[in-house]
Amino acid sequence: MKICASIAPPSQIPENVSGNAKNKVTIKNLSNPRRKFTENEKLVLYSEVGGVCPLCSNDLMYEKSKTKNKNFEIAHIYPLNPKPEELIVLKDVKRLNSDINHLDNLLCLCNGCHTKFDNPRTKEEYEELFTLKSGLIKLAKEKKLWSNSTLENEISELINCLVTTDFVFTNGDILSYNPKTITEKTNATITVLTKRKIERNVQDYFSFINFKFSEIDKIKPTTTETISTQIKLHYLKLKKEIPDYNQKEVFDAMVNWFQITSQNSSKEACEIIVSYFIQNCEVFE
Length: 285
Ligand SMILES: [Zn+2]
Prior knowledge:
This protein is mainly alpha-helical. It has 2 domains: about 10-135, no CATH class; about 155-280, no CATH class. It is built from 12 helices and 4 strands, in the order H-H-E-E-E-H-E-H-H-H-H-H-H-H-H-H. It has helices at about 20-30, 40-50, 85-90, 110-120, 125-145, 155-165, 170-175, 180-185, 190-220, 225-240, 245-260, 265-280, and strands at about 60-65, 65-70, 70-75, 105-110. A hairpin with a 2-residue loop joins strand 1 and strand 2. The site of zinc ion has 8 residues, from strand 4 and helix 4.
């Protein structure tokens, strides 16, 4: 692991350092101490980037003599001990966490990218890593919601029907929904391509899904209502936990959740069902 050796002014010593530790550090060299990360913390950071350097896509492990070896270091996004010139360059930037040693301010990088990132540190590179890590933090929150949100098993049955049925579309499908709904409920953050995909999904599959839900309800009454409520609840949780997700990110997050909950089924089928629930007003106001 790389240890930053530059000296910071006493004001840079984090507030959360205990009294004795603070004295010890001050006597030593006035710099912020690099916390020793636990193996579990390293595992969290390694998993967060999928074992691949997020800047150059290099594998973060290499094999030698039949053993796996680390090809990564844990980088501080905001420097642990900023040099005077870095304090100037980064004076107005947003921080991911007030505690410089917090996992929010750390990222696994390959050795080469870490060295390049630190020398010299530029505002543009800092902002690139800030954005990258912000996305990873939001994704982690999204994943946390998966274990607390349930979906009725019948949704898998519906996905299977979408995947295996050879559809013949008619004008009746096109006329059976109100295309104004999608336009009224979406804004510029959905992106043109995603909005078009949602419109096409609703146009082609809305009647079929309505029909399938009515069939399921005949055998297991209130299934549709239960699923609709579960979807609305998950949407509201996403909005609460990750309020700065835009509509495109919410759509993708709902699709990811569907895919995971239905045992990694077809992404296209999950997009069709999320589109249905946008039209049906469970997703987006
Ligand atoms: Zn790299």
